[in-house]
Give the backbone structure.
Amino acid sequence: MNHWIVVPVVLPAMVAPLIVLAMRNDLLLQRVFGLASSVVMVALAGGLLWSASVNPPQAYFLGDWPAPFGIVLVLDRLAALMVALTAVLALVVQLYVVGSGWDARGKHFHALFLFQVMGLNGAFLTGDAFNLFVFFEVLLIASYGLMIHGGGRDRLRAGVQYVAFNLIGSTLLLFALALVYAVTGTLNLADLAVKVASLPPGDAALLRVAGVLMMLVFAVKAALVPLQFWLPGTYANAPGPVAALFAVMTKVGAYAVIRVYTLAFPTETAATGTLFADLLAPAALVTIAVGSVGVLGATTLARQAAFAAIASMGMLFVAVAAFQPQATSAALYYLVHSTLAGAALFLIVDLVADRRGSGALHGASVPFVQSGLLAALFLAAAVALAGTPPLSGFIGKLLVLDALRDDMVLVWSVVLAGSFLMILGFARAGSHVFWKSQASAPDDQTDDRHGPDALAFAAVFALMAGLAALTVFAGPVTAWLDTTAQGLHDREAYIVAVMAREGEG
């Protein structure tokens, strides 16, 4: 077995308690160990990504127990991509946290941050539906602590709302898993794929109920309409770097849908058919509309960034809902793009709010230091999220629209109208925050209390560089993702990797 597969889960699980027990009063040591862990994770994720690219799916059996009896982690191209994306984003966000001093506002930021990374990596690598639930709970606990980091009434209220919605989702997921186990006798995803394909017709209705319940849970995680209500308040009130990390957390819902519904409940299975695609596609289109209107009507920069995240999830799920290789490849490209662009926007919004004293989009414009640099960064992030040339958002939307050209009238109309509304919303915000403040700023009244925050700006530039690289190397990236999507829809290699040892033990 490739023992490196388990390290993305074990490493943060070991370092986080060490920070809590031995370094709680030493911020410098917390930063050193936190950053060192993230650097190691990036190197490890790069190695796993290369391994997954040149090898078929690889399974890691904890305790050497064979599937479906033991816990199994599976490394394939999709899991490796998500682990690598998480590692890169985690390192960038930690650099921003250290550079901006956000971690000094509470004792346990770095420990909670690593627990969050552990939960993300576990969710991406697990080959078992019940352990997906377990890692969801790890995510929930850690993200709640990060959400209220730094305190404040509004943040606490948003955190309680966030936990309440996700606890409801967790309860529904338990019911769904119980139904799946009652019908099939397994929760191992590869074993489930085999058994669902040969399920007796009399059990199909119960399995469809379980599948719909699971989709509701994943829709909560991904903030799909009509289950998106928790996201604007949560992300808008979360600390900026936490919201940036949450940009990949909503992708857990998208990952779960891709993984579960291409592997265990594919559209060609008689027991499920196109039911899940028929439910997902209209919800995704409405999510684009709601997110785009929210961007146009937002009253603060933070809420605007939150609604942009909702719109991007709608765009992602429009492609996912097709459940065919070309659309899945386009969805994965857009997933990477939207994660980097969304995280960059949240960090930029945090820098702007810190310098202006507020992210409000009403009232008098306030002059602030470094407004020119921040205006350029805001423009780049807005262009990326709105999907206009020349950045990767434009390529991502073109890939999605090309994959869905059979539904050209409806899908293209919603996507293009949504992009137009987002352009108007970002233009309105940029005009109020940057243009008016520059025009009205006397030379001696600009707030210069803030230094250059070089490390924080370096983190933002790293994310923008990632978007530029995704644009320049769109050809090789999409070719790699095409192969990844083909592997997701041709399930045999994944099933063989997990179930080859079924008779052992």
DSSP finds 19 helices and two strands in the chain.
